[in-house]
């Protein structure tokens, strides 16, 4: 590992060959220039490559170890205690999914359990499994499989969104009850930035050096877009492979991921998932999402009803956050995805880099809609005081959770390179330019 880095530093005159995962443009990056922090794609500004200094493995290892310790504290100690009318409800992190399971909301219980506890834990363990041998200059057995698993699970590990859910739930409850914050909550607050920074620095370049050549191809002749040269680009580890003539399925020689020229049936899958998401969004808004019962009185409320309750109670910043995450984000995603799909179909040549950016934002914001589901999980477990007060999840919570998952899958099944393919069909291929360095 470190020897590789040393060699890399010696041969600064060399060039790396890379393809952009969002527009398929081939880029030659001088090794010397690549020693800067980041290299952006020259045609769409996607992050192409992040330079990892010799200390990157140590830094990543330290971040992930700290995250794991904080995560253990966050799970083992009391999180929040609610006191109301002489009664007490002490919560641990697992109480949210447990309360939803107990109330029969298996689907959202499972989703909250996976996205707030299981997936973050698995990504941390997977990263440490790779980083500890890398620290000693070795590659762990089955590095490809584990790297791929960590890479796939990261978007579904939602500690940041969960934290926002905790803030909303706490502000909501402070109005009606007394809260005591446990050591686990402090650990969780510290965990969020540590894990986010750790994930941002977790890159394939920690384990595999950047690619210098593609066997059988003249480096200097590689211009334009990767598919012009029959090259397949690995979405997991960024390796470039020549497509064999027989057209069989090719696995990435580094990480083992299946390689495709474009994501298979991207447009059809995205349309199908998007339409499903839009259909689920209707019952998610028509039916009640949550019922708050206090001293035997209470009624179910819809998402919008919940927002107006918050605004009426003077908590309009919270109302705005819930409105934005639960209504605006899904609707913006539907509109953006429909526009992107339509523009591919039309072969639109209008501002391809802006459309690629629109896709990037659409993909990134999707998970924030989960915040309402996390709020419901926290409220269900904390406000569980029998006749005094209870909060329970209703049918729309399941529809809403399904909307979020399905639209996230829709965004992930869209291949932004199709935007550029459609453009290319209209015009001649753009010449390969020097990549921009940031
Ligand atoms: Zn690009
Ligand atoms: Zn790969």
Please provide a brief summary of the model:
It contains 14 helices and 15 strands.
Fold and architecture overview:
By secondary structure, this protein is of the alpha+beta class. It folds into two domains: 2-54 and 209-253, no CATH class; 56-205 and 264-424, no CATH class. It has helices at residues 2-10, 56-76, 95-102, 106-135, 143-153, 159-174, 183-200, 266-286, 303-312, 316-346, 352-365, 371-382, 395-413, 417-426, and strands spanning 15-19, 26-30, 38-40, 47-50, 80-84, 87-91, 178-181, 231-233, 240-242, 250-251, 258-259, 290-294, 300-301, 389-393, 436-437. A three-stranded antiparallel beta sheet has the order 4-3-15, with no helix packed on it. Strands 6-5-7 form a three-stranded antiparallel beta sheet. A hairpin with a 2-residue loop joins strand 5 and strand 6. Helix 3 packs antiparallel against helix 4 (106-135), helix 3 (95-102) crosses helix 12 (371-382) and helix 6 crosses helix 12 (371-382). It is globular, with a radius of gyration of 24 Å. The site of one zinc ion has 8 residues, from loops.
